[in-house]
Design brief:
Blueprint (H helix, E strand, L loop, with lengths): L12 H4 L2 H9 L1 H18 L8 E5 L5 H8 L3 E6 L2 H9 L5 E4 L13 E7 L15 H15 E11 L4 H13 L3 E7 L8 E7 L18 E3 L1 H10 L11 H13 L20
Parallel strand pairs: 1-2, 1-4, 2-3, 4-5
Antiparallel strand pairs: 5-7, 6-7, 6-8
Length: 280
């Protein structure tokens, strides 16, 4: 994916999705078709109970295209988006869901256990940008995932279709999701196709479970689980949810924070965090 074609490199979402751009999402038949297909796949990965209406959070709901898919499936939903222009189009379309203007990087403002599930289409990658001087992608991702975890029921899933720029971005996103208490990983549909390839982050609140199978994977697994990292993190954490001080995990986390801050940090080795015997 060439960087010049990635909208998150051009302007913040609330600026990029202005009146003209927002109208495209309600008038361009190709965009509508793609959005609906990805929404249907996200809903499939959400594995909500069949023939039972659920209450779903639509993050980055835009003009309400994904919400229309939720409507067709008989679910109730609340949509959050940072673009006023997009929400205006959604209101003009008279969508069924409730709409909230909000920045996902500032957290989800809902009570604990409110939703049976959450979906998000083409929005998550925007959190990897620092659009303002006070934006820190790591902190914003953690704030988002931790508050999302809180407002989901204890058996819920959250499914994000997103466009990662590279493997480092995937690692950044998944690591913050695991630290916020989620289990899960990434499902890559049609991994060998340039146009059809799609990334879905599937997060679970109720413990570690097998990831769904990817579409078009030719019999090979295209699902990458990150739950083992979460389990290792859990074992290393103390009662307050932090890694035990001076443990290997605590030292590695500290060194990683220093690297993100641009500070000189020694390289990790097999001796990192190993206790000395006291003998010379």
């Amino acid at each position: 994916m060439a960087s010049v074609r990635r909208p998150e490199h051009l302007a913040p979402p609330e600026v990029f999705y202005n009146d003209d751009e927002a109208k495209k999402y309600s008038q361009n038949s190709r965009i509508i078709e793609i959005q609906e297909q990805m929404s249907e796949r996200a809903l499939e990965l959400l594995t909500l109970p069949e023939d039972e209406p659920c209450f779903v959070l639509d993050i980055g709901c835009g003009s309400g295209l994904s919400g229309s898919v939720l409507d067709e499936q008989g679910h109730y939903w609340v949509g959050v988006d940072i673009s006023p222009a997009m929400l205006d189009v959604a209101q003009d379309r008279e969508v069924e869901g409730d709409l909230i203007l909000g920045d996902m990087g500032e957290g989800m403002p809902f009570r604990a256990g409110t939703f049976d599930g959450a979906i998000s289409i083409s929005a998550l990658q925007w959190l990897c940008n620092a659009d303002k001087t006070h934006h820190n992608p790591v902190k914003r991702l953690y704030k988002f995932f931790s508050t999302l975890n809180s407002c989901l029921s204890r058996t819920a899933r959250a499914v994000f279709q997103f466009y990662p720029e590279n493997s480092n971005q995937v690692e950044l996103i998944t690591s913050q999701a695991m630290k916020a208490g989620f289990y899960g990983g990434v499902v890559v549909d049609y991994p060998n196709s340039t146009k059809a390839k799609k990334f879905f982050l599937v997060l679970m609140t109720g413990g570690n479970m097998p990831l769904p199978k990817a579409l078009g994977a030719d019999g090979e697994s295209s699902s990458v689980s990150y739950s083992k990292k979460r389990e290792q993190l859990d074992r290393a954490r103390g009662s307050k949810g932090k890694s035990l001080k001076n443990s290997r995990e605590w030292i590695l986390e500290k060194k990683e924070r220093r690297r993100r801050q641009g500070k000189n940090t020694r390289a990790d080795t097999k001796y990192t965090g190993r206790k000395r015997s006291g003998r010379f």
